[in-house]
Design a protein that fits this description.
This protein has a three-stranded antiparallel β-sheet with strand order 1-2-3, covered by helices on one side. It has a three-stranded antiparallel β-sheet with strand order 4-5-6, with no helix packed on it. A two-stranded antiparallel ribbon has the order 7-8. The termini are far apart. With 322 residues, the chain is mainly alpha-helical. It has 14 helices and eight strands. The chain has helices at 34-48, 56-67, 74-88, 98-110, 115-131, 154-162, 167-179, 183-187, 221-233, 251-260, 269-281, 286-293, 298-305, 314-318; strands at residues 5-9, 12-18, 24-28, 194-195, 200-202, 216-218, 241-242, 245-246.
């Protein structure tokens, strides 16, 4: 993949790259401001890497190639396109119509896919064409489903732990409920970031971008007992391991534990939501919950979790007594 960068030359910034012969080429970005140059470089790179063809597949592939090292959810985008490309890949953008989108949605629903999934797949194509500045397609997609609001009660959490027959799944559940961390953060957690003496876990990986903002959280007594036992038996640098190897995906083991607990509707991400709800129900401030969740602003935390606080709107309700 061609690499483009900015370089200051005679008071102006240029886009600089190497051609096929290894020679350095440049093109003026027509600005002396570095931040503006970086913004213009994005547009320049997009124009230079625009696909030679005119199919939707060409445009989406160019978009995904550009984004693959720049965003965290590239796997999700790749998966969405893998499902949609048989229908849309060989078309010109102007051949995408509301009728075609509707037929595609019905086809995916017949396969058991939710409207939320269909929306993500169609939006991936929409984003790719927008990035390529192509506006000849006419989209229609299902409405976004309401946000998922599944969380565990504490009796349900105990059932889930009882359903964990594999130690690494049990440790994952205990970690998720005690740290409110995302699945990816826990599966990537290494022992060098677990300070059992000071009783805290640093969920941030050195070199991560601000888009992956993560917290440093304390270790409570229940979690510490589990971690001490796991550390004693550890065979790898990773906290979550199985048979001497790092665990890359907990989906299958977690699903088995949830089924044994009678909680088939549960996903690993629901444990993060559960932890936040429990803190809110216990009267923990939105600022503290935001720090636990790694939110950059407590406004997002307040919008989602304030309703679980026992004091939320309580004072307002008193004003309505007469």
């Amino acid at each position: 993949m061609q690499v483009y960068r900015t370089k200051l030359y005679r008071g102006k910034y240029y886009a600089v790259w190497s051609n096929e012969r290894g020679e350095t080429e440049r093109a003026s970005l027509r600005t002396a401001d570095r931040e503006e140059a970086e913004r213009r470089l994005v547009d320049f790179e997009r124009d230079m890497t625009a696909p030679p063809g005119s199919t939707v597949g060409d445009y989406v592939r160019a978009y995904l190639d550009y984004k693959k090292d720049r965003i965290r959810d590239i796997v999700r985008l790749e998966g969405a396109w893998a499902n949609a490309k048989d229908t849309f890949g060989a078309l010109r953008p102007d051949q995408i119509t509301p009728e075609l989108c509707g037929e595609y949605a019905e086809h995916r629903r017949a396969m058991g896919r939710s409207d939320g999934t269909v929306l993500k797949e169609i939006n991936t194509i929409r984003q790719a064409l927008n990035w390529n500045k192509v506006n000849t397609a006419r989209f229609e997609a299902p409405s976004a489903p309401p946000p998922r609001d599944r969380y565990l009660t504490k009796p349900e959490a105990r059932k889930l732990l009882e359903g964990c027959v594999q130690p690494h799944v049990r440790l994952f559940v205990r970690l998720a409920l005690a740290t409110a961390a995302r699945k990816s953060a826990l599966l990537g957690l290494t022992w060098d970031r677990v300070d059992l003496e000071r009783e805290r876990i640093n969920l941030t990986v050195v070199g991560e971008t601000q888009r992956k903002r993560r917290a440093t959280v304390p270790i409570n007594d229940q979690l510490k007992a589990e971690l001490l036992a796991a550390k004693e038996a550890a065979q790898t640098p990773y906290v979550i391991e199985y048979a001497g190897d790092r665990v890359l995906n907990i989906k299958k083991g977690f699903a088995g534990a949830a089924t044994r607990a009678g909680l088939d509707d549960l996903t690993p991400h629901d444990l993060r939501h559960t932890a936040a709800v429990w803190m809110a129900e216990d009267g923990v401030s939105m600022d503290e919950i935001a720090q636990y969740l790694g939110h950059s602003s407590s406004k997002v935390t307040f919008a989602v979790y304030a309703r679980f606080s026992p004091t939320h709107l309580r004072k307002a309700s008193k004003s309505l007594e007469f």
